[in-house]
Amino acid sequence: MTLFDRLKAASADDWTAYVEHDFVRQLGEGTLPVPAFRTYLVQDYLFLIHFARAYALGIFKGRHLADMRSALASVNAILGEMDLHVGFCAEWGISEAELERTPEERANTAYTRFVIDAGLRGDLLDLHVALAPCVIGYAEIARRLAATAKGADPANPYARWIAEYSGEAYAAVAEAAIAKLDSLGDELLTEKRFTAVSDLFAQASRLEADFWQMGLDAAG
């Protein structure tokens, strides 16, 4: 069992509420209101900026050169993804100027600052546990949706999002994150510490669910 599997099992209710949220269900069925998805896209842009900052903490917190290089690669990957995200938003009628001028929603601020705080106060294990629900969870969600008829239907307006996160490239990102958790766990985790680490994971999962709910609330 991977550390990620152990964390999911210890936070089963919170994890299920996140990965099976109504936002996710409607995304897979193609029934998600467009305003909900557009709100999500804009806030996700702001979210990615803070996630790049969170991964940058991995350079500072790195105990080994390999850790620092890994964190730098993640920062570069996220910053590179920003251009793709801007292009995807443009397809939904959202300009880069709109992305830049839109304020953060409270759910976004709560989640991103939680992750950054976890990294500032803790070590690399704390940081990567706080990041895991997003990084790994998206792959799990999209893979499940892609296996459904409606999720894979090209007529689903959200099929591209599902395909992106269920594809081989993102699967490799998620697998690397799982492996990184195991590596850090082998080095830094004790059974006594597991409760505190699993609490971090559970809170991050709840904040992910709140992020989905933010989109639904915007649609009324």
UniProtKB/TrEMBL annotation:
It catalyses: thiamine + H2O = 5-(2-hydroxyethyl)-4-methylthiazole + 4-amino-5-hydroxymethyl-2-methylpyrimidine + H(+); 4-amino-5-aminomethyl-2-methylpyrimidine + H2O = 4-amino-5-hydroxymethyl-2-methylpyrimidine + NH4(+). Residues 15-217 form the Thiaminase-2/PQQC domain. CDD domains: TenA_C_ScTHI20-like. Its EC number is 3.5.99.2. Pathway: Cofactor biosynthesis; thiamine diphosphate biosynthesis. It is an enzyme of class 3 (hydrolase). InterPro entries: Haem_Oase-like_multi-hlx, Thiaminase-2/PQQC, Thiaminase_II, Thiamine_Salvage_TenA. One of its GO terms (molecular function) is thiaminase activity. Keywords: Hydrolase, Thiamine biosynthesis. It comes from the Bacteria. GO terms for biological process: thiamine biosynthetic process; thiamine diphosphate biosynthetic process. GO terms for cellular component: cytosol. Belongs to the TenA family. PANTHER family: BIFUNCTIONAL TH2 PROTEIN (PTHR43198), SI:CH1073-67J19.1-RELATED (PTHR43198:SF2). Catalyzes an amino-pyrimidine hydrolysis reaction at the C5' of the pyrimidine moiety of thiamine compounds, a reaction that is part of a thiamine salvage pathway. NCBIfam families: salvage_TenA (TIGR04306). This is Aminopyrimidine aminohydrolase. It comes from Hartmannibacter diazotrophicus.
